[in-house]
Amino acid sequence: MLSELIIPEAHCWQEWLTFSDLFFFLMKSGGIDFLDFVDKLASRVVKGDHQILRSNHVTWLLAQIIRIEVVTTALNTDPKKVETTRKILSFHKEEKASDPNSVNPQSILLDFISSSQTLRIWSINTSIREYLNHEQLQKGRQIDEWWKQFTKGERIMDYMNLDDRSIGMFWVLSYTMAQPACEAVMSWLTSAGMTELIPGSSVQLNERIMVMQECSPLPMSLLSGLSINLCLKLALQIEESLFFGQVIPSIAMVETYVRLLLIHPHSLFRSHFTVISLPSLESRVVIIAYAYLVCSTLRSADERNKKRDDSLTQRSQSTQSILSKPTVSLLLLEILNYRLIPLYRYHGKSKALMYDVTKLVSMSKGKRGDHRLFRLAENLSINLILSMRDFFFIKRDLKGPSEYTETLNRVAVTSLAITIKTRGIAEIEHLLFLPSLLEQIMATCQHTWSEKTLRYFPPLMRDILMGRMDKRGHSIQAWQQDLRILIIHTTQKRRAVSIKKEIHPGKENLMEGIHTLKFLPLGYNIKFSPASEAETTVINQCTQLLSPAAEPSYVDTYLHHSFPQHRQYLCAGAWMLMRGHPENINSANLARVLREFSPEEVTSNIYTMVDVLLHHMHMELQHGHLLQDLLLKASTNLAFFIWINELLPFDILLLALIDRDDDPHALRIVLSLIERPELQQRIKLFCLNRGPPEHWLYSGIFKRTDLQKALGSHLSWKERYPPFLDDIAARLLPVIPLIVYRLIENDATDTADKVLNAFNSFLAYHPLRFTFVRDILAYFYGHLPSKLILRILNVLDLSKIPFSESFPQHISSSNPVVCPPPEYFATLLLSIVNNVIPPLNSKSKSGPMADTSSNSLRAVHNKTAASQSGVVNASEGHKAFYQNQDPGTYTQLVLETAVIELLSLPISPTQIISSLVQVVVRVQPTLIQSSNGLQGTSSFAGQGSVLPTSPSGGSTDSLGTSRSTPSASGINAANFVSRSGYTCQQLSCLLIQACGLLLAQLPQEFHAQLYSEASRIIKECWWLTDGKNSQKELDSAVGYALLDPTWAAQDNTSTAIGNIVALLHSFFSNLPQEWLEGTHALIKHLRPVTSVAMLRIIFRIVGPLLPRLAFARQLFVKSLQRSLTMVEHSYYRTIACSALFGSLVYLVNSSELLKFRITSPPDRALHLYVVGSKNYSREPITLNVEIKQLFIIDSFSGFHLHLQTLALLLNTIADMFGRNSQPSTPNEASGVADLIDFLHHAILYEGQGGPVQASSKPKLEALGMCGKLMEMLRPDVQHLLSHLRADPNTSIYAATHPKLVQNPS
């Protein structure tokens, strides 16, 4: 890798920065032995690999790590330290004098780096001074002289306007004098001075709070070349100021800190906390653990744990005093929520962070008045949950119900639905745990999803959630049941006037009564008498609290004496008392009470108010009011809650409304709210103050927004600490995409288009907008009009996405029925080959284009060909992480971009699959014939005559049913090969691999089409359909046809069937476990089997798939045992068992369950799904008894696929060798003896759960299945399969099976 990076023509500076980041981390963590690395590098030079010495990059790389403790220790204790030092110095290269007109920071750094490293080695061990280059020591003084100009005040270091030479010199300084450089940077960040923070009117002046004034953060152009040693020092120094300092830091310091983490995601990025809490949460211990995130090192676990424990102990001693300042937790959450989510996802740490943050949410949701911290943590949790793109658990151990809030529970279900539908479930154990996970969420979630939402859910989740009881009307019923008799009091005469009308639940509800009250004179005060005189009812309390003349002192009375079950109706009561006029209630008292509520109570108020509001609208409509008037009034009243008095969090209100999309008015209210000028003004100010979406490139001064303007009165009450990145508008970034999802689910695609257009510039700040575009296109594939697809694509910064050059033309074509030409699809695959598929290390064994520099040529070809083909320049693939934060790497970006292109094309999946398959089928003959034409007389000429009756030699007969010539493919093969940098033989194989990888990323709608198209091409192959071929010719033909393309390419014997089979294998290997179930469709398409040749093709297709399926069964049984152990000690074991056993598919023996005894609370019954129709019938079984057998079935359990696949293979044999089959030509059983051997091996593999050993035994149920299916076969074939019976008299497997030996009956 070093040799490739050092090629000067490649201009690989960014690659070097990425490589050095990883190299530094691995060296510091002990993953690389320093002395061994130097020895091997020196030996390469001795053996003649002088490419290492072509520049000072290697010296620069070693200079990065020379200060690491493990390196200095190795040098000091090395008995051959002198020899090792001389080896290190031998890598130095004197750079040529740079052209003054072409000076850049990199060239200056490489020119001085030898001097820097020499000084460092000399400081480590002065005894080797005589071996050092004294000219290099003298050269280092130039840096000293340059730096003295600034330290003496002769020049001012303006970090925002440094020229290239100054940047380069400062980079060199970071290697020679890291501490002074660090101090200089910190001085810059604090150079603007401090000022006193002016508190709001609601805050008492009991202390002075100082805040740093703003300056510009350090630019990425300067930070990117600093030594990692300096970056570490700088990051630690900034951490001290951010989390330990006495002064509130500036936004510039926060942004600089974030930029350091983004530049060195491996060396600097740390797990910011394991558990966050607040000192006010009584005795809870708070720990902020700064430990290295990535743990893939070669050091012993004990050593790593010891160092981590020491670090945690040291940090925890000062944590309690740190977090006595609320700003620490708030700042940390802001940095995580608005800056580091992509970085956590890049390292695969989003789940761990989510668990930690949701712990904070769980601990804070019941604490009164702690709204700002809670809502920020909840918003971070929403972003983290929606960023998950693989299966996740609500709790690590799956014990007990979810501790999420109601909002997080609903978001979690939505995120799971998107993930499962667009990416599948990768692991079999996740399939097993899905019912338990949903039950865990539903145990505390009150929501029921609408039919319109459920129809887009994946079938797995839809089947589980459809039977859920609808609880949406419970809040209305509870409201009605609490109130019975309505009494009206006059405030002047204080006498009661009873309404002679009693309100009975289910007959005449409360809303009708309150509707009549709207027309009473304003002099009347409304009061409800409860069924019990000792209990104050909701409306009575609301009236006393919220009447315009209410005493402020009643707030304390309400807070201390109101019943918790009544508090959730406060906002609903306020809504009703408004009577359409917000001035009718005391907003000051309402605001005070809501602030003193716990966050959980405020959330409950919002959901209840939405239910009451929607019910009230229906009642108003029944009384003849116009819908438009009601919608306008609802919008106005909600604006009173959200914008005028800022009483409730807007993002939670919007989420509550879109979750009630079962009501036709809910989404219309949402639209009226997001179109209001108050929100548009907020968003405009947010975009203006926040700077560009690419925050890491902004060089200006960030504006600190006033606390109340940024967060509103509800969140900022009694708060003094200013926000850094937080804003009410920013809280809406995860909500707007969910609104779009709901609109599409409700067939309001035109409205969704308008929403995306209105919020297009705002969504640019979404940290994962690329993922949003990819997922929404996949989730609603086939249901989106072309206009909306274009609008969704415009959410992206199209200039920075590597779309194909012709893609814009195809999606905006006036004739969408026309499929793009083959050249388009081939170019798409070529982009994946060049940027996604790992480059080949081995060389082609034959072919005139193979040479020793094929890989380096590939890089050059990629550079020159980008402008011609639309294929992305290879150098783009080495961008820094911060340039590809979503989806994370350039490799992922290219692959996901290809997925987005295919999902956006205005053609059917059938056309897309057909085009891609045709490229794969024709790829090698097309490329080879083009190559032959370029080279004149090809060395491969005559290959086609090796076996005239076989589909070999690149013959046109092997291309498909039409026997058309390769030129008809429409691909300019000569240009195609030159753009790849590979030989035509290599490229043909890589394109097949790329196609399989791409197809595996697409939704399941494409998979069915692939199986259909693949089976069609196989069945219509001319030598299979030609009845004149003898059995010997067919055997010869199928042997060539099934030759692996990587071997066939070497002899130009590629065939349509061989390429299709290779494509299917590549496709299968990239499919998630859940989607493997669809593979049976391919075998069914190929049946009935009419020849042994077709039988061999089927076995060849299925062969590599069986190990994955066999492993899945073993994993299932282990997961089942672990789950039962977990459930046995849980109060919720009944729910978990019910969902868990719903995943079983056939007989599970007591030995596999380790003879568990399952107990349950006496007031609960354990229900199991019993074998039957898909509409499961549930029957209770007796508890506290040993589970002997469970005949349970479920439609999605993936672990049974192995037996089903084996059964299909046996059925294909029965097509040819069945008792009643009548093949056109007789076939001997001995002709398929190798296939029979394969079946034996596959069944033993499944029984072993891995590679077959001498002691391997088949599963009893496998023998039972085979014994039944063998009854269909001819006696001579049955004889070959006799050992696969469950009969001990005929089967050696059965005779030695422990269960059958113990129970011969």
From TrEMBL:
Gene Ontology annotations for the cellular component aspect, listed alphabetically: mediator complex; transcription regulator complex
Q: What keywords tag this UniProt record?
A: Hydrolase, Nucleus, Protease, Serine protease, Transcription, Transcription regulation
- Which Pfam families does this chain map to? Med23
rRNA processing: present as a keyword of the record?
A: no
- Name the InterPro entries on file: Mediator_Med23, Peptidase_S8_Ser-AS
Q: Where is this region: Disordered?
A: 940-967
GO MF: serine-type peptidase activity
Cellular location(s): Nucleus
Might you name a Gene Ontology BP term for this protein?
regulation of transcription by RNA polymerase II
User: Can you tell me which family this protein belongs to?
Assistant: Belongs to the Mediator complex subunit 23 family.
Q: What is the recorded name of this protein?
A: Mediator of RNA polymerase II transcription subunit 23
- What lineage does UniProt assign to this protein's organism? Eukaryota, Viridiplantae, Streptophyta, Embryophyta, Tracheophyta
